[in-house]
Amino acid sequence: MAAVIKYDPPEEQHDVVPIAHFSHGHLKKPEDERIKFYMYGSQKKDARRGNRRMLVAETSSMNYVGKNFGAESSHTSSCKHYIGVLDKNSYVMTLHDADLFSLKPTTVTSTAEEREEEAEADAPEETYAQKFSDMVKTFGTARQKRALAAQELSKASQRNTGATIANAMEHLASEDTLKAVKQDTSSASIPPFDIDATEPQDVYKIESIITPTEEACLRGYEKCFANADKETIDQWRDSSRYGEYILKHVSLLPHYDEERARLSRLLLYLSALIQLYSVPPKVAATKGVLLSDIPTALQSRLYSLFTVESQIGGKTRYTVPSRLRDRLISYIFVVALHVEDFEFDAALLVRDLSLTPVKAVEYFQAIGCSAVTNESRKRKIGQEADSPVDPLSCDNSIRVRLKVPLTFPGKKRGKSRH
Question: In a designed cystine with 264, which of 135, 158, 225, 338 is the match (CB 3.0 to 4.6 A)?
């Protein structure tokens, strides 16, 4: 007998089924220790905050807290969760809306009654500023939360500046520490790398940029490039849908199916990064307008890596500030290196990104590449034979090569500005 599926929409928010999992393990025998669960909901009537809920699991020695909102939430706006209940007699499965809660442990040193008494006793000692901060953290707008986070960060920086400097000076003489600090600093703006790699393809492993799960999500989406013919490419060029660098490589894809699909996925990912970079720093974009060529899950990851989320007019907007644009450029160049087998003329890509050759060279050097413009090679010809001049190259060509062992440029010292 075939099962029948029906959907039971919730009438109220409390009708949504909570589904909880423990972030650090699983319950072996729930009957051995009684666990009490409490659900707290927001009293707000608006659609954005009215669905906020917090689940608390309480034992004699530990509390577990999970939220369906905020940074610690397991909930994502890109998907909706359901739970199905199967009636074995009628073979009817009823689908209910569900909320996911990731329960994380918090230490408990007293019973619930003792904590309430302690809270009442300590309440008069809590300042108005502390109460206001707690309220903003839970129910404040995105702008209020950013302002509060900036204030707390400023206070923490003032308290810890002296200790941080002393600690840095204490470990400054250690060669291993210097190497670790150098890698940590670089990895903030460039993709993960292996400084001890002996082959160019092992320096920036593609698996650390596009994870196997994300590559699996891209499978099928790359057909727009893999199956594109000359007429389609000309239409894309006329509508400016893709830059010349992407269109050039789509027109030159190999005929071997497996390699053609692999390069198509790389170009699809690269085109998404270029689309994000095309958003001006002070312009807010709406999610869904950009990156429509890639799956939703991958869109969410790129937005989290390279954009800042804000609320404007009740809608969620995304901006790419200058600090994240530097990271975005590094990822674009590293993916392009994988497309080009780690040595190529970057002039076309640089032109699509509206970068000057000098600035592009700085970015390439920052990720450990040797980058030489055509003018520089003309000045060096006869002195160095490492990068031979291509007589067919255009005057603004930029020859880029990723060498091993990986080396990064030293910091330049300039005159201080007042």
Answer: 225
Burial class, 197, CB count within 10 angstroms (exposed 0-12 / middle 13-18 / buried 19+) = middle
Separation of alpha carbons 341 and 343, rounded Å: 6
Rounded to 5°, the CA angle 203-323-243 comes to 70
pTM listed for this prediction: 0.53
Evaluate the omega torsion of the peptide bond into residue 409 and state whether it is cis, within 30 degrees of 0.
Answer: no
Quote the DSSP letter at residue 30. G
- 3-state class (DSSP) for residue 320: coil
What is the rounded CA–CA span in Å between residue 106 and residue 273?
Answer: 39
- Strands of 227-306 (E only): list them: 285-286
Of 401, 370, 405, 338, nearest in space to 198 by CA: 405
* CA atoms of 207 and 287, how far apart (whole Å): 26
d(CA 341, CA 339): 6
CA distance 329 to 132: 40
| DSSP reduced 3-state for 238 | helix
Distances (CA, A) of 285 to 279, 282, 323: 7, 10, 17
H/E run at residue 106: strand 92-107
**What's the start-to-end Cα distance of the chain, in Å?**
81
Cβ–Cβ < 8 Å for 93, 5: yes
The owner of tokens 């490589």 is: 249
Cβ 106 vs Cβ 62: under 8 Å: yes
> How many whole angstroms separate alpha carbon 15 and alpha carbon 96?
9
Name the residue among 278, 262, 271 with its Cα closest to residue 206.
262
Structure confidence at residue 167 as a pLDDT band (50, 70, 90):
low
Average confidence (pLDDT) over 248-269: 89
Nearest CA among 19, 41, 35 for reference residue 102: 19
Looking at the DSSP bridge assignments, the partners of residue 318 are: 285, 309
Q: What is the mean pLDDT of residues 169-197?
A: 56
How far, in Å, CA of 275 to CA of 180, rounded?
A: 33
Would you say 303 and 274 are in contact if contact means Cβ atoms under 8 Å apart?
A: no
Q: Which helix (H) or strand (E) holds 338?
A: helix 322-339
Q: How many CA atoms, within 13 angstroms, populate the side-chain half-sphere of residue 363? A: 24
Structure tokens at 40: 């707290």
